[in-house]
Amino acid sequence: MSESRELTCEKFGKLMTIIGAVVAVLGAILILVKNSIKNSGGLTGFWKDIYDLPWFIFLLGCGIIIFGALKWRRYLGDKTSTMDTSAKAAKTFLLNNGIILALVVMVIVIAIKENRFMQGRVLVDILAQASPRMIIALGICFTLLIAGTDLSACRMVSLAAVISASMLQNPEYPNRFFPDLPYLPVIVPIVLAIAVCMLFGLLNGFLVAKFDMHPFIATLAVQVIIYGACSLYFDLPPNNSQPIGGIRADFTLLGQKRFFQEALPAINGIPILIPIALLFVIAIWFVLNKTVFGKNVYAIGGNREAAVVSGINVFKTILCIFVLASALYGVGGVLEAARTAGATNNYGVGYELDAIAACVVGGVSLNGGVGKVSGIIIGVLIFTIIQYGLQFIGISAMWQQVIKGIIIAIAVALDLSKYRRK
Amino acid sequence: MSEYVLEMNGISKFFPGVKALDGVTLKVRRGSVHALMGENGAGKSTLMKCLFGIYHEDEGEIILDGKKQSINSSKMALDLGVSMIHQELHPISFRPVMENIWLGRFPMIKGIAVDHKKMYQMTKDLFQKIDLDINPAVLAGTLSASQLQLVEIAKAVSYNSKIIIMDEPTSSLTDNEVEHLFKIIEQLKSEGRSIIYISHKMEEILKISDEVTIMRDGTYVGTWPASELTTDLIINRMVGRDMTNRFPPKTYQTSTETIMEVRNLTATDPRSFKDVTFDLHKGEILGLGGLVGAQRTELVEAIFGLRGIASGTITIHGKPYQAKNVEEAKKYKIGLLTEERRATGIFGVLSITDNTIIASEKKFASGGILDNKKRRNIAAEENKKLNTKTPTMETLIQNLSGGNQQKVLFARWLLTTPDILILDEPTRGIDVGAKYEIYTIMQSLAAEGKAIIMISSEMPELLGMSDRVMVMSDGHLAGILNKEQADQVEVMRLATAYL
């Protein structure tokens, strides 16, 4: 590091804050200009084609300000800490954030090809679609952090969906699962559905912790059991394996309600799924970073033998991991049922692999001990944005699969090259 | 033909933020044993990794047999006649010994099928040549650590290389096996091969090597004929300071108050320790000596709740004690630093803070929720007391040298405020300077009244540090010696008593 290139973190933070402010102001000016044109007689040409781009520029600017301010604040106490600005450090930065940069490029390409992509309501749609996946990915990340996996996630989603939906049908609906069921408070079937999932999670954890079974095979066995059990339940007379419908409105609200519909007509309000997912993101971040349990999870994943020798109760921790994970799948299943106002025993198929892929793309190591909530958010968003974006520009579902696979491979290759030194 | 088979000139290697090697020179003569010495972190392993193609040097040249080479892979190094015995063994446990040896170059029948018969015979011949009595067809996982080490040596020999790098080859060998290794080395020398020998054990180096190159902090200090060197001279040049004494002077008084009584302790495993009886006093360092396989580690792990006990009793502070797991052992204020730092000690991918706090998280939490600020401060404070050298508390522990990792583990266990601290080979693979610091820490703990059990296979350490020396032999307690009675001869006599 040469003297002249040395840049203190404080300076860097200031610089970023200023850049952010400039971008935000630029966005704000564009918003104002656009609004005035709109008011003075309708939008045409360029001003129409950029849709909500000014707003996105404004938000991006705010984001940079926050990033810069954080950087600034963190090192305020230590004036001497410096940023490495050498070419090598820049290369490392590109490598570390390669997948995000690729995503940005992709979004720009999609936005150029189809200007309508630059709309607030598209963003809200994407976030809403990502929400249930996010909750499931948060569950599965615990099992990945201990160098395990969980294949039963998908079936737990369908189980929770079927159980909760079966007890929350309209009394007038002719095809009720339990024709004589009294009117239950909406919370009862939800808690019941999640509790049943947690029981199966306990079984997962027991097999793994007690018999030292590899999570792959333990959860595979449990997955098959759940599917069978769920199908049996689904096949109970009088339902006989028909899709469950006629869901009560107070339940579907949980998946379909939109807040601020009147205040924000441009994006048709904020779907309830987004704050729900946000809540779980914060909760899981807290658990992983601020609790003894979270530290023990990282420790067991980092070096199980050393964890035993340090006096960590590995048995209990593994049980808790699988129970907590399945509770999250249960929540995901309940939300799916509410969102789609229905359920079958085939809900959630493939969700577990999507969730694992999202975690891995977000930097969770399959060798255990490494992974952050922020990474998982990015992983989930990448998959949702790409799927949504590709659909948006009319790429066929088959090609979408091909592209998705390529992204997984490239992302993981990039991630691993971080750790490899030569 | 030049007299040197290998010349490494001005080798430099950079890692992000660190200069691991800075213009290092190494010249190895044909048919000689060249010792490479330096503290941990001096860059010996990095230099050897450059030679073996695991890293590529950023500056400098490697000349093999008079020809300049750019070595890009281990395969290329092997093809050029360089083989290496690694410090950490990575056997494929569930495959036979012979497959471990010939992996990547199996003899074939017509290029289609692996010729197992020939492979068996080749292995048999190889073992015979170096006088090794191991069945080539048994699974590698069934061998002991020292047998594996010898197999690894055989593998290096099998490449017929001009240069064999041996990185700490004796760390898991008994004295007899070390003798065996030296015979193999003599034989290789007489065949005109050269050996680069890395070790921390001065006595070995002076005995076996022809020339010694010393490194310090990634730089080249110099090369001398072994005949001109003494242990003190080597240490001086390695640490760059005078080290008149390898052990700090004793400044504390041991008490006679008994903290733990062990009576007739016998393991569940019939091949392990049996009928062990001893007392542990407050404020003493009780050395635990013996040969590899004497079941010392098994004994302390049983006390710590990691292994089963069939019969016998333990009392701590007069109260009966038997731990089923480490949590219970911790309640009775026992701590254990394990022998295998990497395998069972550190959490490589976690930070120094996390590694320090992990055994005492509950002290920093209310209702399971952690006080991160307190964790960070206490971890920093504890590591500062022990003089752990680390860039920040967030640094991953795998990036520290062995000595500093060990200090973090000390900090981890000291935070559990133990009365009894068990140290299993506390200075294995640690350089001389850090060893001295570890000894100082041990003494100050004893001075605070903590009782320490120290397993050590290094005779000078065992004799230099212990207040009493307890010697085990094949699972039996062979005897307990006072400091005055303890000398090398007596310890060896006891260590072989039950063999």
What do you see in this structure?
The complex is a heterodimer of chains A (422) and B (499). By secondary structure, chain A is mainly alpha-helical. Chain A has 2 domains: 1-85; 108-419, no CATH class. Chain A has helices at 9-39, 45-49, 53-74, 87-96, 98-113, 120-145, 153-166, 187-211, 215-234, 249-256, 273-290, 292-302, 304-309, 314-340, 351-361, 373-392, 397-419; strands spanning 7-8, 82-83, 258-259, 270-271. Chain A has a two-stranded antiparallel ribbon with strand order 1-2. Chain A is globular and about 65 Å long. The two termini of chain A are 20 Å apart. Chain B has a 6-stranded mixed beta sheet with strand order 6-9-10-3-11-12, with helices on both faces. A 6-stranded mixed beta sheet of chain B has the order 18-21-22-15-23-24, with helices on both faces. Chain B has a 4-stranded antiparallel beta sheet with strand order 2-1-4-5, with helices on one face. Chain B is built from 17 helices and 24 strands. Chain B has 499 residues and is α/β, with parallel strands linked by helices. Chain B folds into 2 domains: 4-91 and 143-239, P-loop containing nucleotide triphosphate hydrolases (Rossmann fold, 3-Layer(aba) Sandwich), CATH 3.40.50.300; 258-495, P-loop containing nucleotide triphosphate hydrolases (Rossmann fold, 3-Layer(aba) Sandwich). The chains are: A mainly alpha (422), B alpha/beta (499).
